[in-house]
Design goal:
Number of helices of chain B: 4
Number of strands of chain A: 11
Order of helices and strands of chain B: EHEEEEEHEEEEEHEEEEEHEEEE
Strand order of the largest sheet of chain A: 1-9-8-7-2-5-6
Shape of chain A: globular
CATH superfamily of chain A: 5'-nuclease
Number of domains of chain B: 2
Strand order of the largest sheet of chain B: 6-2-3-4-19-18-17-11-15
Distance between the termini of chain A: 38 Å
Radius of gyration of chain B: 20 Å
CATH topology of chain A: Rossmann fold
Structural class of chain B: mainly beta
Strand content of chain B: over 45%
CATH architecture of chain A: 3-Layer(aba) Sandwich
Oligomer: heterodimer
CATH class of the largest domain in chain B: Alpha Beta
Structural class of chain A: alpha/beta
CATH topology of the largest domain in chain B: Proliferating Cell Nuclear Antigen
Helix content of chain B: 10-25%
Number of helices of chain A: 16
Chain lengths: 382, 263
């Protein structure tokens, strides 16, 4: 899922591109959320006694519960969410999807084995791996969001790509997802852990693409090539080239073509018929609706409709739903506080670096260079 | 190196006390002509802009432009050591580690006290503030504005300001009741420092968070007068002039009632 090891690469090479924030720092921001990914997380994480929440008819309700409360939590904090749903997967993802199907089959086998042995803990582990968001669950969530007055965007293809496009068009501030490839798709800002449960108190990590590029001294094209080398959902990678080497190679050779010319391909064999060019194209110009043509409106929630749906059909407690709705209404009516940085634009970065910090940085710089010497990729003998 | 001396520690004390609850760490930009600071509060609603020109200092030397990152809480601790009338010397030497030295001197007692404060690593954004032609500019006694904000805060957490040629009205409306303060521009006051002056090019009607206004009015100690510059849908400027040679300005983003995309 996403780009392999990208967040670590950013933390190592462009630490200033990551900001750790509390949820309240995002008030007044519009945020595009990768809905498919968070539904999947809800189905895995929201459980009672190890199994998913269910209505009386035995239908799963974890996804509705998650969507309802986490959305209200965001609105409570002054955030305006937009949910973006996946469309059809791109052709290039078929390889990745096949792998996932294989893994599911394995997990299924392991699950039956564990059940036979009566190992409840193992069984639960594999059961979680088998979780899949059904079409019906997707539809139910869309219905709920519609009743809550939250805008929903149906992406023609990948949700992350659509989110990134909304960010680029200035419709929203950033993309909230756990998949790092939103950055590769060009989302200027990526928020991780925005939908993490409140009780866990996980701060939000904000990644800024512009600062990643600036600090790593890469262009957007070079960054995309780097992500492909690290490992994306759309094609394989060169065996034997890990994150460290990938960064070095791209910095040195600027693009995959030149990298391929310069590495010893017998030692580092690229996949046969490696479709990296198509993957690059997909990141560069993915199939999306044009962000500037998308209309986003946050409507008045339909309280009675929600009560009917959540309590009538899905057996949620009416008191709780009503009090959560009252909270949401209150935050909506409070009038939004403007942000000063939406009136004044950033003109420059101010850095105060103490001597101690500078020394530490120099040390780190030396370490990096030392590391480079020990293992540069061998050039192909001509 | 950077070295600047103020005749009274009290001035710096008042400045730090009035912004330290809003901003925790801030970069002090020291240049040849002035010492200045710009910082947003942690939730990015308000912006503090401070400028202390060379004229405010008894002596001032700054060899090259530097940014000194300081924690305002720590600065406040250092300044608590000084009496208001003590002179205050700020000193920073690049080769002498990561500290700023505050030297407070009491000339009557021939006493000096050196307080060293560690500097901070700061990585912040500097905002460009565009030139703005404000529709309404109102000047009044700083203490008067402080009282008005305090009074309204007991009724509401939101402050509505409307201004027309006839006068400026501050309204706080809440669940328990409301408070409405009206100033008609005074022409008959002899005492200039007590006058409320109002220049209106266009009427305005804007809402702000009163919590922030109350924080700004901590700067009342700095100056007799305060100037409010207003325009619909842009941040208000609350400015406290510092003698003739500087200012402390607060910018506050307005509250937006119905947003375009809200129905």
């Amino acid at each position: 899922m996403g780009i392999k090891g990208l967040s670590q690469v950013i933390a190592d090479h462009a630490p200033s591109a990551i900001k750790v924030q509390e949820i309240k720092a995002f008030f007044g921001r519009k945020v595009a959320i990768d809905a498919s990914m968070c539904l999947y997380q809800f189905l895995i994480a929201i459980r009672q006694d190890g199994s998913q929440m269910q209505s009386e008819d035995g239908e799963t309700t974890s996804h509705l519960m998650g969507m309802f409360y986490r959305t209200i939590r965001m609105i409570d904090n002054g955030i305006k969410p937009v949910y973006v749903f996946d469309g059809k997967p791109p052709d290039m993802k078929s390889g990745e999807l096949e792998k996932r199907t294989e893994r599911r089959a394995e997990a299924e086998k392991a699950l039956t084995e564990a059940k036979e042995k009566g190992d409840a803990k193992e069984a639960e582990k594999f059961e979680r791996r088998l979780v899949k968001v059904t079409k019906q669950q997707n539809e139910e969530v869309k219905q709920l969001l519609g009743l809550m007055g939250i805008p929903v965007v149906e992406a023609p293809c990948e949700a992350e790509a659509q989110c990134a496009n909304l960010v680029k068009a200035g419709k929203v501030y950033g993309t909230a997802t756990e998949d790092m490839d939103a950055l590769t798709f060009g989302s200027c800002v990526l928020l991780r852990h925005l939908l993490a449960p409140e009780a866990k108190k996980i701060p939000i990590k904000e990644f800024h693409l512009a600062r990643v590029l600036e600090e790593m001294q890469l262009t957007e094209e070079q960054f995309i090539d780097l992500c492909i080398l690290l490992g994306c959902d759309y094609c394989g990678t060169i065996r034997g080239i890990g994150p460290k080497k990938a960064v070095e190679l791209i910095k040195q050779h600027k693009n995959i073509e030149t990298v391929l010319e310069n590495i010893d391909q017998t030692k580092y064999p690229p996949p046969a018929d490696w479709p990296y060019k198509r993957a690059r194209e997909l990141f560069h110009a993915p199939e999306v609706m044009r962000g500037d043509e998308v209309e986003l409106t946050w409507k008045e929630p339909d309280v009675e409709g929600i009560v009917k749906f959540m309590c009538g059909e899905k057996n949620f407690s009416e008191d709780r739903i009503r009090s959560a709705m009252a909270r949401m209404q209150k935050s909506r009516n409070a009038g939004t506080q403007g942000r000063i940085d939406s009136f004044f634009t950033v003109s420059s970065q101010v850095k105060c670096v103490t001597v101690a910090k500078r020394k530490a940085q120099e040390e780190a710089e030396k370490m990096k260079k030392g590391g480079k010497k020990s293992g540069p990729p061998k050039k192909k003998a001509k | 190196m950077f070295e600047a001396k103020l005749a009274n520690s009290g001035l710096l004390k008042k400045i730090v006390e009035s912004i330290k609850d809003l901003v925790t760490d801030a970069p002090f930009d020291c240049s040849e002509t002035a010492m200045s600071l710009q910082a947003m509060d942690s939730s990015h609603v308000a912006l503090v802009s401070l400028k202390l020109e060379v004229g405010l200092f008894d002596t001032y030397r700054c060899d090259r432009t530097i940014n000194l990152g300081l924690s305002l809480a720590n600065m406040s601790k250092a300044l608590k050591c000084a009496n208001n009338d003590d002179t205050c010397m700020l000193k920073y030497e690049e080769n002498e580690g990561d500290s700023i030295i505050f030297t407070f001197a009491d000339p009557k007692r021939d006493k000096t006290q050196d307080v060293t404060v560690k500097m901070m690593d700061i990585d912040s954004e500097h905002l460009g503030i565009p030139e703005q032609d404000y529709a309404v500019v109102c000047e009044m006694p700083a203490a008067e504005f402080q009282k008005t904000c305090k009074d309204l805060a007991t009724f509401s957490d939101s402050l509505n300001i409307t201004a027309t040629k006839a006068g400026i009205v501050f309204t706080g409306r809440g669940d328990i009741g409301s408070s409405v303060v009206t100033y008609s521009p005074s022409s008959n006051t002899d005492d200039e420092s007590e006058a409320v002056t109002l220049e209106v090019k266009e009427p305005v009607n804007v809402n702000f968070s009163i919590k922030y206004m109350n924080q700004f009015t901590k700067a009342t100690a700095l100056s007799d007068r305060v100037r409010l510059s207003l325009c619909n849908d842009v941040p208000v400027v609350v400015e406290y002039p510092i003698e003739e040679n500087g200012f402390l300005r607060f910018y506050l983003a307005p509250k937006i009632d119905d947003e375009e995309n809200m129905e």
